[in-house]
Write a structure and sequence with these properties.
By secondary structure, this protein is of the alpha+beta class. It is about 30% helix and about 15% strand. It has a single domain, classed as PurM-like C-terminal domain (Phosphoribosyl-aminoimidazole Synthetase, Chain A, domain 2, Alpha-Beta Complex), CATH 3.90.650.
Amino acid sequence: SAALHTLVAEMVAAVPEIHCLRDPTRGGLATTLNELARQSAVGMLLREAAIPVHPQVNAACELLGLDPLYVANEGKLVCICAKPDAVRLLEVMRAHPLGRGASIIGEVVEDSHGFVQIETGFGGSRVVDWLTGEQLPRIC
């Protein structure tokens, strides 16, 4: 985990109109975005290739049969801003030691049902649903 207050202070100083900042620790990125989409009555469209997942996390999730989108992300944040502010905000984040791995992973879209979708590396798309129950490791 990491104390992100200095990063957040620089982000807000550069782009005061940030719409939302969230901690994706509980339920990971997928749960955080589903909560935001439902609460705001919008959809989210993610690009799988843009989501930064550490290779060791990918390997561990693959081994255990877990989806990294639902794994806790301590010391990370989800930020939603207006599209014209995204590149500037990304520059500010990447200039900070705790934001070097920041990435624009998708966009907010009109969808009153609050669906979160992801464009896969194979050119298709799928719904990133709510996690039901607990994500348990695969036992082989």
